[in-house]
Amino acid sequence: MKKLPFRAVSVKSKGVRCAAVAPIEGVRFLCSNAPQLPVKGCERAKSCKCVFVHHDERRQEPRRDADAGIAGFGYLGAERRTRRGRRSSDRMRAPRKFGNT
User: Fold this and answer.
1) Of 12, 43, 53, 73, which cross-links 18 as Cys (Cβ 3.0–4.6 Å)?
2) DSSP for residue 6
3) How do residues 54-75 score in pLDDT, each as one tens digit?
4) Residue 52 phi, psi dihedral angles, 5° rounding
5) Measured at the alpha carbon of residue 11, what is the angle toward residues 8 and 17, in degrees to the nearest 5?
6) Between 46 and 1, where is the model more confident?
7) What percentage of the chain reaches a pLDDT higher than 90?
8) Cis previous bond, 38, omega within 30
9) Residues 6+ apart with CB under 8 A from 94
10) Nearest 5°: phi and psi at 92?
11) Three-state SS string across 11-55, please?
12) Hey, is 67 helix, strand or coil?
């Protein structure tokens, strides 16, 4: 079984939602940072029906196109870098030119 370092939970109300749960319902928390149930200020603490919903990671949406299965084509804008890199190998020789020059 592989370890999931960013495993998360979210709070879901299974009944009438109280005002204390409203701002955090559906928000993903890392398991170690999750609030205790019932949350502080719960109006129905003795009959609270809130539960944790488990998720493999905290992210709700893919952060990059590659995470969604979309192939990257690189940056299509104009080259704006004016200096060569900081490595000594970058400074040793001028860039090679290709074509009929």
Assistant:
1) 43
2) T
3) 998 777 776 666 666 666 666 6
4) -95, 135
5) 170
6) 46
7) 23
8) yes
9) none
10) -70, -40
11) EECCCCCCCCCCCCECCEEEHHHCCCCCCCCCCCHHHCCCEEEEE
12) helix
Return the sign of the alpha-carbon dihedral for residues 32, 36, 37, 40.
negative
- Say how far apart CA 64 and CA 71 lie, in whole Å: 10
The tokens 């400074």 sit on which residue? 91
Short-list 76, 58, 78, 60, CA closest to 68:
60
Full strand arrangement of the beta sheet holding 51-55: 28-30, 8-12, 51-55
Reading the block at residue 5, the tokens are 């370092």
Decide if 10 contacts 26 (C-beta within 8 A).
yes
How many residues appear in the chain? 101
CA distance 21 to 34: 13
